[in-house]
Predict the structure.
Amino acid sequence: MSTLAGKHIVLGLSGGIAAFKSAELCRALVKAGVTVQVVMTEAAEHFMTAVTMQALSGRPVYTSQWDPREANNMAHINLSREADAIVVAPASADFMAKLLHGGADELLSLMCLARPINQVPLIVAPAMNREMWNNPATQRNVAQLKADGIHVLDVGQGDQACGETGDGRMLEADEILEDLEAFFSPNVLAGKAVLVTAGPTYEAIDPVRGITNLSSGKMGFAIARAARMAGASVTLVAGPVHLPTPRGVQRVDVRSARQMLDAVQLHADAADVFIATAAVADWRPAHSADQKIKKDGSGQTPELSFVENPDILATIAQSPRGASGELFCVGFAAESHDLLAHATAKRIRKGVPLLVGNIGPATFGQDDNALLLVDTSGARELPHASKQALALDLIAHIARQI
Ligand code: CTP
């Protein structure tokens, strides 16, 4: 379930062409279980109609501080007192300048000024032309808004409505949603660095063939996302998978087990937690041909011999930082049977404080899973749920251990 479910958010629109994305954001918020109260400035109404936003939010939109629907005629007070947060998207350059100076000449800025600042966070998603964004005045305003405790989201980069290319686009609706989810998640790993491996590895036989496995990487990617939600800075070392990088996560793509080990060793020193979810190939071909191996017409098959790959988890767990517990190492075990016995033995063999068991064939490629957490004090089941939900539970469990 989304961390946003049950929240009440006032979605403010100031004037900008990015207002078309606010319609999608509104829909996504409602879908996540949020009640959305839309407030629009007069400028916003030039880009998006109140009718559209009312239809999407299911609530009448407020556009004026003189709105007679409020019995006390104080929409700015009533709306801000009910909110878990005010999200202004798009936040134009002018609107941010106004916020900075405590301007209050229309309902949206008046409501932002009137909000109880310790109870109702204000989150703004800037949207403007790249020159406007890079202008020292805007950058000064952004810095001061942050210093005032206002959460200023990043801007996107790319083609702009004006035909120019650069920084200043409003984030996409799904990116804002993800940032809001993170904002409302308990920050149990704030200040921590988490390193995750995910997906299969690919061990080349020749330039066009290789050995890999059915790991989809979904569990590891979900864990990387959950760690970022919890406030950690996250590095995700991924084998060959076709999954989008979770927002805010630094991704390093690798192919083989040896490349994965190199990448992990590069980042392990800076990490506080290492979670090895990758299905690393246990063996690789002893020789990888430089050129494609051709059939010679004789019916003879090539002879393949194998050598063992390095054990990435064991290498890191048995390094000085891993062995001392300074780096908290978590292993995964994909088993086909006798999960508890195998996971318990594997935890000891790998030398890790926590091992997470799952039934491999049943989970590969699926969106859900069930986990068994095995540590020195015994075993605990995380029953069948989505990989996203399990990842959040696992991260909460790890945060309690470190
Ligand atoms: N692992 C690793 N490097 C390897 C093999 C495994 O880092 N070369 C990690 C996996 O990421 C996982 C854990 O070790 O966290 C266990 O992986 P698994 O394949 O279940 O165990 P193996 O050690 O390969 O044991 P077996 O195949 O005998 O079950």
